[in-house]
Every structure is written in structure tokens, then in C-alpha cells.
Design goal:
The chain is about 75% helix and about 0% strand. The protein is built from 6 helices and no strands. It is found in: Membrane.
Length: about 160
């Protein structure tokens, strides 16, 4: 993996993490504490462990995928991957703003579902290029699918 590819992907992922983190600050608010949550809601401490690992995986796997595409001269596929990654990161950061800041639980649940699909697509693209080396990225859409179920359940409990 080339540093010239890793730095931009890491910066994009870090920006997403920071923006999402800023939006998630209301997770400690009275409003969030009063929400009814399903019994399978992970403890608050799980999120600052899971997300950095996923973000690091997104950055590293994406950089390696982009490098492979560049080495193969697949410029069109490389541009498509960059567009898919950018879209995914916008969706990723948007969820926190929708849920915590705007308190739009239904919209956030839908956004989580779209993020899960986008994450699965990103994983599919990476595996198509790198094979099993990109398989760890599958944890990302799995987590997003879980987040979709959780968001939807919170929305249903608090309508």
C-alpha cells in the first residue's frame, strides 16, 4: 500500500469520524437517555472501540484497493471506487447528524439501511479487486446492518 494513497483515504475517513463524533455528542444528553432502547443495545463503551477499528479498516482496505486498481491500469474502476467511498463516507457521517442532532429517528433508520447497502457495495468492490485480503472489510456492512436494525427498533419504540 502506497503512502500517497493511504494518506488521502485516512484523512477522508478521519474527517468522517470527527464530524460523526461531533454530531454524536448528544448521545450523553437527557433526550437520548430518555429514549426507549431495545435490550440488545450495546453498552455506550462499545462504540468508541468498534468505530475506530472499522474506520482504520475502511482506510487501509480502500487504499490497498485503489493501489491495485492503479497498478492494473483500471482507471475507470478506480474513479468509481473513489466515488463509492466518498458516497459511503458522506452517508456514514450523516447518520449521526440525523439521529442525534436532528432527532429524526425514522430518517436515521432509513439512512442506516442505505449506509449498510453502500458498505456492502464497497466491500464487494474491494473483494473483487483484492480477493480474501479485503474480506475483513465485511465487518463494516455487518455492523451497519446491525445499526440499521437497532436504529429501526429505537424508532419503533419511540414513535
Amino acid at each position: 500500500m502506497q503512502i500517497k494513497t493511504l494518506v488521502p483515504t485516512a484523512l477522508a475517513v478521519t474527517a468522517t469520524a470527527v464530524l460523526g463524533g461531533l454530531a454524536s455528542r448528544p448521545a450523553q444528553s437527557a433526550w437520548y437517555a430518555k429514549l426507549k432502547k431495545p435490550p440488545y443495545q450495546p453498552p455506550r463503551q462499545a462504540f468508541p472501540i468498534v468505530w475506530p477499528v472499522l474506520y482504520a479498516d475502511i482506510a487501509a482496505t480502500s487504499a490497498a484497493t485503489l493501489d491495485h486498481l492503479e497498478q492494473r491500469g483500471q482507471d475507470q474502476e478506480r474513479r468509481a471506487y473513489i466515488a463509492a467511498l466518498a458516497t459511503n463516507l458522506v452517508l456514514n457521517g450523516s447518520w449521526s447528524w440525523l439521529f442525534f442532532n436532528q432527532r429524526r429517528l425514522g430518517t436515521a433508520a432509513i439512512a442506516a439501511g442505505v449506509l449498510a447497502v453502500s458498505s456492502a457495495d464497497l466491500t464487494r468492490r474491494s473483494i473483487a479487486v483484492q480477493g480474501a485480503k479485503a474480506a475483513p472489510l465485511a465487518a463494516y456492512p455487518a455492523w451497519c446492518a446491525f445499526a440499521t436494525a437497532l436504529s429501526t427498533h429505537i424508532w419503533a419504540l419511540n414513535r
